[in-house]
Amino acid sequence: MTMRSRQQLLRSLVKDIVADVDDAAREVVLTIHWRGGQHSQVKVIKPRSGEHGCRTPEEALAVMRSMATRWSDEHIAATLNRMGLPTGQGKTWTAHRVSSVRMVNDIRAYRSAHKEGEWLTMSEAAAKLGVNNHRIRRLIKEGLLPAEQVVARAPYQIRASHLLDQRVIDAVARTDRPCQVFSENQISMFSST
Question: Are the CB atoms for 57 and 88 separated by under 8 Å?
Answer without folding.
Answer: yes
